[in-house]
Specification:
By secondary structure, the chain is an alpha+beta fold. The chain is built from 19 helices and 40 strands. The strands form 8 sheets. Strands 26, 28, 29, 31, 36, 37, 38 and 40 form an 8-stranded antiparallel sheet that branches. Strands 2-8-9-10-15-12-13 form a 7-stranded antiparallel sheet. Strands 16, 17, 18, 21, 22, 23 and 24 form a 7-stranded antiparallel sheet that branches.
Length: about 850
Amino acid sequence: MGNAAVAQQKKSTLYSFNKAPLKQDVYVQLPLGSIKAKGWLLKQLELQKDGFTGNAEELYPGKNDLGKDADWLGGSGNSWEKAPYYLKGLVALAYTLDNDTLKAKAQKWMNYTLDHQQESGLFGPVKMKDWWPRMPFMYALQSYYEATNDARVIPFLSKYLKYELANLDQDPLKEWGKSRAGDNIEIALWVYNKTGEKFLLQLAEKLKNQSYPWADIFNRNQFDYFGNDYQPKHMVNVAQALKFPAIYSQINQSAYYTDALENGISHLLEHNGQPHGLASGTERLSGKSSVQGVETCTVVEWMQSLETASRILHDVQIGDQLEKVAFNALPAQYSKDLKQHTYYTLPNQVISVRGPHGFNQDYGNGIVPGPYSGFPCCRYNMHMGWPYFVKNSWAATPDGGLSVITYGPMTVTARVAQDVQVTIDEETGYPFEEQIKMNVKLNRPTYFPLRFRIPSWCIKPVVKINGQLVSGVKRGEQLLIKRKWSNRDQIVLEFPMHLKTEQQVNNGISIERGPLVFALKIDEEKKNIKEFSVKGFYETEITPNSPWNYGLLTESGDINKNVTLVRSSIPENPFVQEQAPLKLKMKAKLIPSWTLDYKGTAAFDVPFSPVLSNEKTEEVTLVPFGATNLRVSIFPTIGMPKYTDMNYLENFDHNTSKGLVVYGGAWYYKDNAIHSAPNEDGRSGPGIKAIATATKFADFIYSANISISTAGDAGLLFRVTEPAIGSEAYKGYYVGLNAKAGTLTFGKSSNNQWKAISSSNYPLEMNKIYNVSIKAVGDSFEVYVNNSNKPVITATDNEFKVGSVGLRAYNALVIVDDLNVRAFTK
């Protein structure tokens, strides 16, 4: 045992692995520049250099942005997080490409900050009293040090972190810093592994104690348990914090921390999941609707969290999830020349024009490609996406070996065994091809371990070394190969990709092949509506030039029998729709009733499947999600509709529900009931809805227990069709209770307008539970409270005959339980 420990220690000296008492089997990043992209992956980096990253300082020249008078360069501006965000990506891109122009851009920012540290240890703009922006800047410094070995960096960071430890008690973390302190802890532990300074472990504990309890939040689905506090439900914070428990598990290895990432992602995807493997957020968690979006910041932060966690937890599924996000969500956020981004990207985005969407944080150009789309954060933070993916694709292991985190065309050069240099050239078109060849280059035969991630989605993986089959290869596991490697050894990995469907919102489906998600190919009409000062940069509206409202025909249970796969050679940029190297041909029918919504800025949510269509059968083409600007990736299926139309019961046992779809605002589960979630103002937002879209009732009794704790009104929806995001964005009836006013109101939304039909005074009290029951027969309606013999409201109306049931809140906090609908049979 002692000899093994000595051998381990010798091997660990190659890179700065974890020092005691930290977890000892953690992998580390290779120095920036060790991994070089090739092929299609290199093209993305080059486009980024020539696009939004290489031109960022010219695109955003103000003193509050990246101009010469920015405060991070000693000027009078107020750049706050903008420069650190940008530099985090710029440094990684510059040294991954080994590009002198980008290096020079980065160097002036690095030099100014390194040369102007205050005597106390504080760095950055003197007037900036905020811990948070310094966190992404430390990531930029980490990358810069690993690429250059600049001797100023480690003492600089150590001095700052000592200052931080001394001052956190009187100036504790707040808001963004309190949310994102995992970043700070990661850098503190990285410096500890360089210096061994014990105070850094104290700092890590203090940062953890001042942070949000992310392990609790992830393990127990507590994102909305913090009242008006917006931070723990802000999707970028959540994505960034996914790595927090994994980082802390290096200090405390209990399952509570090691399992929190998996549990958190499971909860997020159950209630907010989208086909590309991310949870929606506009900007708060936003449900599973096909027309809710994901923010570019969320994409790159979710990726970095998985990149960090994969080195600590060694769970193959983390790499699977990372590839899914990187190969689908990331390129979909960018224009194909990487000169534009969209602040939000939707799974079903059939039009990209200016206008309102009803999102919790709405921006007129939030889904319009351009260098100024939406709020400023993403245009600075997005630069790390591709270069961080490359630099985290391989990692060094403490036993003197290497581990593959993600696959793609690239070359890695590293030190292994007793300080022997190895180069492994990865020849592949993955994920557009199934085969990956790895060619080993060594000066002399050397014994060291290699670890390969075998994807969970691959049913029959095959690995060969020099043509010989490797035994024991299992999907979803890490394949460890310990052997003496020689120059020109070749490892060939075959990951056969099979088509499969994943069930999505409203019983729709998404289609996957390996790590790729596919979306409908929609012809596009582009119109540049604004030109910026840097030539070639525009804001561009995109409208569909071909039908998009298709349902898929999937008569056979095996999706592979319903699809024709069309392959072509891999172009320089496979994310250009017309030259996508993989296309799927499928049978489909138009669904004429599926149209743009009330605002004309998005489609209606995908209709509940199966959907009846009498249109002719056509052949449609699907392309990789990342190759689209406009898309449908959640498809309805064609068939005979199957609705719940006799009995519906939902009591929210185990703090969940099945089939309730959120439209606007948010709802969450606690104490086996459903709650409307507050915004920062303590109110739910106007007209937020949760619809049981699988239900279809005509004549019925609908009851529920309702308790309201604020001003505003909340209650029950019924006979609802065409729900969308927006206060009156539905067709159907509503019974609302206003506890403060002491009234019940029965009305309807028609033509996107609210119409009151009848109301009644009733002695309602806040925080008291009322059983509300609605009897609907034809055009007659009766509303009862607490099982009264006499209805509180009696009314007639004949506009809506049949539809779904659900819940609604208008600027009110409400708790609802025991939904029960019983149809009347004729």
